[in-house]
Write a structure and sequence with these properties.
Layout: E1 20-26, H1 28-31, H2 37-45, E2 48-52, E3 67-71, H3 75-87, E4 93-94, H4 97-100, H5 117-120, E5 124-125, E6 129-132, H6 136-139, H7 143-147, E7 154-158, E8 171-173, E9 186-190, E10 197-204, E11 207-214, H8 221-224, E12 232-234, H9 254-268, E13 272-281, E14 287-296, H10 306-319, H11 339-343
Parallel strand pairs: 1-2, 1-3, 3-4, 5-14
Antiparallel strand pairs: 6-9, 7-8, 7-9, 8-12, 10-11, 10-13, 13-14
Helix pairs in contact: 2-10
Length: about 350
């Protein structure tokens, strides 16, 4: 609901003179998944202006910025950020390129999970997977050696996560014949039946939101031996499918989600991530959660009520800058409001889950 007459948010119903400028750098196809008009409007009402960064120009010639948030990759961009940080050590960069690079490789991104406390307690794990550098190893008669004991069906994933369409070119492989034609390098990950439901967890600093999504349906054993059916099939755009009925699926406990998110974020040294979580049942019927994928700076527009959560996080980063002095009360920054107070200012809207 919109704020009522007694809400402290009323005083910020119109834009204030900006106190902070946040530079953002994103690929054009990712811009609208984060920089929404509703977010820009809420930020402006709290003295925050978001300004697009031109990655083709030196950062030193742009701004000035109080904080930079980005989702760009590559050595040239990393050199830009490092040079900028050397000149402006008091300006936070969300997040450090060195930390982001750890999750740009689908084979190594999940290595961090094994060291989490929830993993050592057996509450969360990752599917078994192998890295295959040479496609010829999959086409030969001795393909079993390349599989390292993995069992079909398998998910074939490009190794690099660079935001391109090719990096989302995944397929489901039902039997050995389906390995032929795969492009290498490739990550092969065991597919685990999970009831056709995936939990996408959006993490913004210390805040975690779990959203239920449709996923690939379970694969029956008979499908693996059906020689008349395709040996492999590319993924359809399952994100466009309607989510399962909420009453039919048990959501992961929020305390569990918060703990996994907190441990994962701290282990990676990142503030803005999401991760894909599924729930599988072992032969004894006990539920076990598996992390399938980790993504940096995801499309937060698909997270319900993202605007106040993201804005409050950015304001907190600005408040905690080295040597930063809080603006005087009434200076127009709006930094004293919590995410709950900020949420009251956002008009209700339909946000796809």
């Amino acid at each position: 609901m919109a704020a009522n007459s007694s809400s402290p948010a009323d005083s910020s119903s119109s834009p204030r003179p900006h106190t902070y400028t946040i530079g953002y750098a994103m690929l054009p196809n990712k811009h609208d998944t984060f920089i929404q008009p509703s977010f820009l409007d809420l930020a402006a009402r709290h003295g925050v202006r978001l300004e697009a960064v031109d990655a083709s120009r030196p950062l030193a010639e742009q701004g000035p910025f109080d904080l930079i948030v980005h989702k760009l990759h590559g050595q040239a961009w990393r050199a830009q950020l490092e040079a900028f940080s050397a000149l402006h050590p008091d300006v936070p960069v969300v997040d450090p390129p060195a930390a982001i690079e750890r999750i740009l490789d689908r084979f190594t991104m999940l290595d961090v999970v094994a060291g989490l406390g929830v993993a050592t307690e057996g509450a969360v794990a990752t599917p078994r997977q192998v890295f295959v550098a040479d496609a010829a190893a999959l086409a030969c008669d001795d393909a079993d050696a390349a599989l390292g004991g993995l069992r079909f069906p398998l998910i074939a994933k490009p190794v690099e996560v660079d935001g391109s369409a090719a990096s989302h070119d995944l397929c489901l492989v039902y039997r050995r014949e389906g390995l032929r034609g795969l492009r290498a390098p490739v990550v092969l990950q065991e597919f685990v039946n999970h009831g056709g439901v995936l939990f996408k967890v959006y993490v913004v600093g210390d805040h975690a939101t779990c959203v239920m999504r449709s996923s690939l349906p379970d694969v029956a054993d008979a499908r693996l031996h059906d020689l008349a059916a395709d040996a492999a099939a590319p993924f359809a755009n399952i994100s466009l499918l309607p989510p399962p009925a909420a009453g039919d699926v048990e959501m992961p406990p929020q305390d569990f989600v918060n703990r996994v998110a907190r441990e994962l974020r701290r282990a990676l040294g990142l503030h803005l991530i999401n991760f894909d979580l599924i729930r599988a049942s072992d032969p004894d019927g006990d539920a076990k959660y598996l992390i399938l994928d980790i993504n940096y700076c995801p499309g937060y527009s698909k997270m319900p009520g993202f605007e106040p959560v993201v804005l409050e996080f950015l304001l907190e980063m600005l408040r905690n800058r080295p040597g930063h002095e809080q603006p005087c009360p009434g200076a127009g920054s709006g930094t004293g409001l919590s995410a709950e107070a900020l949420k009251a200012e956002v008009e209700p809207s339909f946000i796809p889950s």
